């Protein structure tokens, strides 16, 4: 009887989790345009030179990567009003909201400096907002299973925000000046909803208990992180799986247009994929509760490999089969989004038990860097491979050999890093029992 009551007491009220998750919606809605739509918009619609836009965005990406450890460290050291998680997050919102509005709704006549300034400020603001926000969620509960619920609410809102960002450009048109209308809609959405939802979360969601008994400088923090073996194992698996997911994500538009011969279905398939990911969130929570997080994630990756391999056999007109693959892999995407962040909270417990310092900001900064590295690596690998196999997206029709190579690269290349990630995670040392022991030591 006592155990049942204890389990219920550890569960946050759904309204608390909804209020915490709400800011994830506008944050996700600005992320996709920032990295996907802005390059084309500023070159084709605003008339800036393509090479200059590419150089500016490269500089912004470098700034983005450099800012992660700095904001992660600051997130752990903040002692201002509202607490180190809530207060630091709330302080970031004006910069993020204003920069998003200015970047997505530019005046008619601008120069390259406009893109550099507001793109750079939005990159800094997004990092500043995201790191204390995810650290806040990781610390809301010390319960193994409850952390998965927290991550599920947040990642569910993230997926809905992503769907909105995908849908708005289609709703307003995706070519020529109509792109401006889609970006303006996103600008208004972020400028209004981010301050509103951020303030609601600040007021109604509690500040986590800081379990730190010591504080360290940036370099000392990095030393302790490098000695946290479960963390190194988890982030290596996360990096491998992220790289595996980024390969088909990079090639998705080419595969649907070139291999399936259905360019007009790119948008609907993308929406179907992310919509099914939303539906897969509760499945991930239930699987983690039944089999533990690492086993549920490993099983989902294994099933994804078997399903995704089938796409390598598809050709012109196989739309129903590809739609079924989008449904299945979309459902399983939820496992990739929900379970690793929940496990990240558990490996932070391992560090806190050893060092006496709870540094969730630093850990999620490393997480963000791993995400960016996996995406950059996928682009750096796949495009040279496309050239090697003779696939040219500018051509109306590629050769059969080039299309076959595209299928192999899209469907089967991701399997190797996914299998490596499974190998790392199958015997992961922090399960429910081990995590409860770690909490007892802090």
UniProtKB/TrEMBL annotation:
Gene3D superfamilies, sorted: MFS general substrate transporter like domains
Annotated InterPro entries: MFS_2, MFS_trans_sf
Residues spanning the membrane: 20-42, 48-66, 87-105, 111-136, 157-177, 183-205, 231-255, 267-285, 297-314, 320-339, 360-389, 409-428
One Pfam match: MFS_2
Similarity section: Belongs to the sodium:galactoside symporter (TC 2.A.2) family.
Protein name according to UniProt: MFS transporter
Organism: Ensifer adhaerens
The UniProt record lists the keyword Transmembrane: yes
Keyword set, alphabetical order: Membrane, Plasmid, Transmembrane, Transmembrane helix
